[in-house]
Structures are given as C-alpha cells and as structure tokens.
Amino acid sequence: MHLACDLAGRDARAVQLVAVSKTRSTDEVRALAETGQTAFGENYLQEALGKMEALADLPLQWHFIGPLQSNKTREIAARFDWVHGIDRLKIAQRLSDQRPDDLPPLSVCVQVNVSGEDSKSGCNLEDLPALATAVHDLPRLKLRGLMAIPAPVADGADPAAPFITLRDAFNALYANGLPLDTLSMGMSDDFETAIAHGATLVRIGTALFGPRTPKTSP
Ligand SMILES: *Cc1c(COP(=O)(O)O)cnc(C)c1O
Q1: Which domain CATH number covers 141?
Q2: Is the CB of residue 148 below 6 angstroms from any atom belonging to ligand 1?
Q3: What global pTM score does this model have?
C-alpha cells in the first residue's frame, strides 16, 4: 500500500486498510490486531457476531461488507461501525431507523455497479445521485462515500476503468455538495490500481491471511 501510494504521489496516510476477516478464526484476527490493525471487514452476520464477542476486549472497528438483507439490518445497525454495501433506499432507511441512539451515526457507503450487466449488485450510475442524496438525508446514517466490487475485466480491457468510473461518480457527487470522504475500492488482486486511481479505503483479505477455503453455507 505504501509503495502504491508513493508511485501515485499520494500520502500513505490517505488510504485506510480494512482487513477482511471473513472465514478467519478469532485467533487470526487477534494476531493481526496485535500488530496494530484495528479495522476489520466481515460478510456474514452470525460469523461476525461470534468474533465480536470473543474480541470485545480489543478496540476494533467493524465494517459490514457483505450483501444486505432486510431481516439482518437490526443487528448490523447495532453492532457495526460501517456498512459498505448500501444499494437501495429501503435498506438504508431500516439501518437509520434501527441505529441505537447511544451510538454515533452509522458510517455508510453506497455500492455502485461499475461493471454494467456483468454485476448484479450495486446501484446503477443513473440512480446514484438520487440514492446518495436520500441516504445523506437520513438522520442516523453518515454517508461517507462510494464502494464498488468490479467484475473481472475482459481480456484487453483496461483494469483501471471501473475505478475511474467510481472516482468520477464520487467527484460529481462531491461537486454537487455531498461531503464525502471515502472511496472504498481495491481488494487483494487490484488494490495497487485502485490506490493509483484514488481509493481511500482498501478491503484486503487474501493478501493478509492467505487463501480462503470456500464457504459452504453463508
Ligand atoms: C471478500 C471480500 C474482500 C476481500 O477480498 P480478497 O480478494 O480476499 O482481498 C473485499 N471486499 C469484499 C466486499 C469482499 O466480499
């Protein structure tokens, strides 16, 4: 990450690392936390809740990065610090309604579909301005920025293109007055490219912990 920042002429402190700990044991998370890592990303609610309980002695920041289901929003709103996958207003409204009053507003990113038809999840670019404005207006959420999980690029296509699309969308919203500070893009295989194109937060699992064994039931 520091090298990628250097190459891009960016300050290394401008990019935050979220360690993606899905499928990883509590001991693995604890070992990484002992090196000073505080932000962890999880995709599955039940798995995350178990780790949070076992690691409650540590001052960790938890990011929910998985797909959002309506029946999970209450616990997500109560237990997480960030949610990255907001793709529709109904889910955002539930999270805002259910965010406990004794906690600060929940930091959220709107997930954008930057890969066209190849990707099912995320808000379309045409719908983004309206969704981002509506999420920004919810009282118990703090809209921090945009997130994307680009589909694999076709042979010969520019691997930077989805990141440039997301950054341009971010800049357009910012220019329209939304006070965004987070561009959540880049994973183990592409974080250098994402950093070169403005990522402020990368979500990395495999490159930190090694390969995951596929999960059978979510
Ligand atoms: C699993 C996951 C990651 C991490 O992927 P790696 O390739 O292991 O770095 C990042 N973001 C999201 C949304 C994920 O689901």
Answers
A1: 3.20.20.10
A2: no
A3: 0.95
Q: 147 - beta bridge partners?
A: 111, 184
* 102 CA from centroid of ligand 1 (Å): 30
pLDDT digits (tens, 9 = 90+) for 17-48: 999 999 999 999 999 999 999 999 999 999 99
Give residue 133 CA to ligand 1 midpoint distance, Å: 27
Domain assignment present for residue 212? The answer is no
In a domain, 170, yes or no: yes
Residue ranges making up the domain that contains 85: 2-205
Whole-number Å distance, alpha carbon 203 to ligand 1 midpoint, is: 6
216 within some domain: no
* Residue 63 to residue 19: CA distance in whole angstroms: 9
Place of tokens 């290394």: 12
165 lines ligand 1 (CB under 6 A): no
Report the DSSP beta bridge partners of residue 82: 63, 107
